[in-house]
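TA notes. Do not distribute before section.
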Amino acid sequence: AVVSTQSTGELKALVRAGVPHKYRSSFWRACISRITAECPGRDEANLYRSLLAQADLADHNNIFTKQIELDLMRTLPNNCLFNSTTATGVDKLRNVLLAFARYNLEIGYCQGLNRIAAFSLAVLNLKEEDAFWAVVAVVELLPPDYYSQTMAGAQVDQRVLADIMADKYPRIMAHFNHFKIDLSLITFNWFLTLFVDNSNINVVLSFWDLFFYEGDKVLFRYALAIFRIYHDELLKLRDGIEVYNFCRGIGDAELCTPENIKKIAFGELNPFPFEKLAKRREYHLRKVHGEMDALNQARTQYNAHKRSSILDCDSD
């Protein structure tokens, strides 16, 4: 059946209430089709097979192919589809990642995409081409440079999250600052893998439903809601090690359910205007780019000085 995902208030309410699992793969495919409608090659029937053929002819010693091979056994190691070299999903996961590396030459491959591809395969009935377009859709929905070498987009979102946490839950941030806790060490992977590595399956499924339908703003809603659920428990922790250990398993904790998260994410946290989020992103993107430029300039000066010193030694 063809599923329409055109945004309406009624459909948004239904998606937030929960997508029945028997309709989930159809719903995701419809969302992914809408998100990727304008992407290059979307209307080419044989694009995926062509990309795989190109990948097969490519240099198998290139950096992306090597990294993909290394990451296959690290991807969802507790899932029977990916937990051994002979597991059903491993070859399919390899194919999806290699095809994406050929499709998006600017990104190629970046750690985090393996979890995205694997989870997509698991939910979309191991259909490689559907999972491939799911990865494309995720990259489309997130800001640029999320999965690049610099991960500038992902860095920016961590700073934006810290800003919003300070606004919404100042006591938690003051507690973290007291113990010199870097929030991004807790939440960077939440964002990069869309919670696949850090939350129970029901939370991850509900998040992906909403992410595909409403976009990347849901990342912030879910992260903030998880901290809100454990607000009081976090404040009782007495040192940084306790905080990091607690947060390592926070997504699997008893109170971390889709119902509890969504009650806060789409209730207590409202209003959550995208315009304000966009402005914070713009501000931090300028800062991140400025820091990167300064780092590159310092590196260039250091290398020039080093070369000059070597030449001086040679002349002696």
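Switch to the second chain here.
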Amino acid sequence: VIKRTAAEVGVLPRGSGSGAAAAAAATTAADGDVVMDAAEQPPGQISEQQQAPGQAAAEGAAAPAAAPKQLSHNRKTLLKFLLRTIALSSYAPTGNLAATRPQDEDAQLLYASLKEMYRRPEEFGGSLFSLAVSVMTDLIHHEPQSFRQLQEAGLPDAYLAAIQAGVVASGDAIVSIPSALVALCLNSTGLARVREAAVLNVLVDVFTSKKTMRVLTSDTPAILGSGLEELLRFVPSLRSDGVNVVLGVFRALCILGGECCRAGRRSCSTAVVRGSAVLACRKG
């Protein structure tokens, strides 16, 4: 399953995955997902529809930079089931860690696959990005000592860099931030990296950018709020940073609403706060 995941992500050549991945995906046949066409094919025989994203990336390498193309629905669905299978089979609660821990070679492939997904969030989409984050989070909670291997593989840094660059506009990706930070902060090195990256500042953009505000619907804000409350409760050293971020969000929202202008200031100018266009007022 890990090898097939690595192949679908691009860490291994396509067709390198074992037949076990097809069997794992086949267990979801009752759900009626179109991923079955891809999962049941013999290794090396991938449909033209699934090859299209990789071919387009290769053919457009010399073309001007453009918005990254997302994977096809089939490949996304296949990767979802592969990641869920990894989480359920490899890291299920058990008293024998050695029985569930993947072999070193497979573990390195898994880490490389997750890192690649953190590096290309727009291509894989918010749901897959969130699942990849969940796998890392489960790894740390299930076996805290694994943080050293994750750090050596560059996963925490790759995740923090992805968040700093701008959260992908997806409710799943946004609500996964607090739980991921809780897991990283269980280790002193991880806590230091989180504080150094000032990753909580990205929440200002989440609550003020039109791109991300569109996905803050239904239960997403409530889930995000609960996650942030849990983060600040379990990681007291981040409370001051969290309070500053909340105040920053309120200030940005007031500026967006023109409150500063109504308060008696005469003119406004355009400024940028974490990538969001807002109004910065100045005294006339």
